[in-house]
């Protein structure tokens, strides 16, 4: 499209990216061989015959639940600190090529600790990649630790305790000062995995503790769940952002509140098509959000699985909505303002 070069160069922030969702079929096979992890036999699941057949399977998920099964099965190949570092580093390299200047990335510690991988192994590997991204690519990063909502709140509380014991939440909570912010290894908490039936309010205790410690708060909501999953995250968890949030459009009063409170939605267009939230990107309420003053960023979610990194998502939105250059500048500015960075970095990005 005529705006492709402009979109490629636009300084982008990514706020909705699961590091485990960057596990490409090539990396699945490479790490399985290195770590001696058995993949499903091709008789049991023909998708695992080769990286190519696995990639073909990634193009055809029936739902969020169908995808998550594949996601949790794949991540079992991640074992050593170096595996986590490599996974995140490969993402940062591609993100830099797509014009990402700042990335706030999710990880799912329980998906690893449940398999016997130590919490600190995961965090150290991801942290090493973040430090390298800053040094070698000029990308600033934040780590956001997500709780799996299909597991009991007590498991989330144990995960919070691991983060506290490792000193990963230490920092002095002045969100406007970049140096203070950078002292915390883990900047924020999120909530992900199966949505419907696992209400946000179940996790009120760990979120209250997050707020007490000056940890930022987001939660997935309004992807498959109705708008009460969004209001539940705002009221019950005091979330500062909503991940996805596309079903906000069904509740005009709640939409006005999101505008007034400057809540950022982290929208993931290609993910929504892949997981059949909508049939086409053009069916997403992105024009409505822009016209109503809802702030949102455009993100890749699980790029290894959903057929594209961040620039692919920007281009898909452009193809569907044909925004003007000024509209794109506003989208980019809103995503800088919605980033969990201090004033100095904000001015560099603007
Ligand atoms: C996810 Cl797309 C999506 N939704 C909820 N949880 C997730 N974990 C990884 N990707
Ligand atoms: Zn997500």
Automatic annotation (TrEMBL):
Transmembrane segments: none annotated. It holds the Pfam family A_deaminase. GO terms for cellular component: cytosol; nucleus. Residues 11-350 form the Adenosine deaminase domain. Its cofactor is Zn(2+). GO terms for biological process: adenine catabolic process; hypoxanthine salvage; nucleotide metabolic process; purine ribonucleoside monophosphate biosynthetic process. The record marks 244 as: Important for catalytic activity. Substrate binds at residue 302. It catalyses: adenine + H2O + H(+) = hypoxanthine + NH4(+). It comes from the Eukaryota. InterPro entries: A/AMP_deam_AS, A_deaminase_dom, ADE, Ado/ade_deaminase, Metal_Hydrolase. Zn(2+) binds at residues 16, 18, 220, 301. Its EC number is 3.5.4.2. Belongs to the metallo-dependent hydrolases superfamily. Adenosine and AMP deaminases family. Adenine deaminase type 2 subfamily. HAMAP family: Adenine_deaminase (MF_01962). Catalyzes the hydrolytic deamination of adenine to hypoxanthine. Plays an important role in the purine salvage pathway and in nitrogen catabolism. PANTHER family: ADENINE DEAMINASE (PTHR43114). This is Adenine deaminase.
């Amino acid at each position: 499209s005529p705006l492709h070069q402009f979109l490629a160069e636009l300084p982008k922030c990514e706020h909705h990216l699961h590091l485990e969702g960057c596990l490409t079929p090539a990396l699945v096979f490479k790490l399985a061989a290195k770590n001696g992890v058995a993949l499903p036999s091709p008789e049991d699941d023909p998708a695992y015959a080769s990286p190519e057949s696995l990639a073909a399977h990634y193009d055809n998920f029936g739902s969020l639940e169908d995808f998550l099964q594949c996601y949790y099965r794949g991540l079992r190949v991640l074992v050593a600190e170096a595996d986590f570092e490599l996974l995140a580093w490969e993402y940062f390299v591609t993100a830099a090529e797509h014009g990402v200047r700042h990335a706030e990335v999710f990880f799912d510690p329980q998906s690893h600790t449940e398999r016997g991988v130590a919490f600190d192994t995961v965090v150290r590997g991801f942290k090493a990649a973040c430090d390298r991204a800053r040094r070698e690519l000029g990308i600033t990063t934040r780590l956001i630790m997500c709780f799996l909502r299909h597991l009991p709140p007590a498991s989330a509380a144990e995960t919070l305790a691991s983060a506290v014991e490792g000193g990963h939440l230490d920092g002095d909570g002045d969100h406007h000062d970049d140096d203070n912010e950078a002292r915390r290894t883990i900047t924020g908490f999120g909530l992900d995995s199966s949505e419907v039936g696992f209400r946000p309010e179940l996790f009120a205790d760990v979120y209250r503790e997050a707020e007490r410690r000056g940890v930022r708060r987001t939660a997935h909501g309004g992807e498959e769940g109705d708008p009460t999953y969004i209001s539940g995250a705002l009221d019950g968890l005091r979330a500062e952002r909503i991940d996805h949030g596309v079903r906000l459009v069904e509740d005009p009063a709640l939409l006005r509140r999101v505008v007034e409170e400057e809540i950022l939605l982290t929208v993931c267009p290609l993910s929504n098509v892949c997981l059949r939230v909508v049939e086409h990107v053009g069916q997403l309420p992105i024009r409505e959000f822009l016209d109503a003053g809802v702030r949102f960023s455009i993100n890749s979610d699980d790029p290894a699985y959903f057929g594209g990194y961040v620039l692919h998502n920007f281009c898909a939105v452009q193809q569907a909505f044909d925004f003007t250059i000024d509209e794109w500048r506003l989208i980019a500015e809103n995503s800088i303002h919605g980033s969990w960075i201090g004033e100095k970095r904000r001015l560099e990005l603007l």
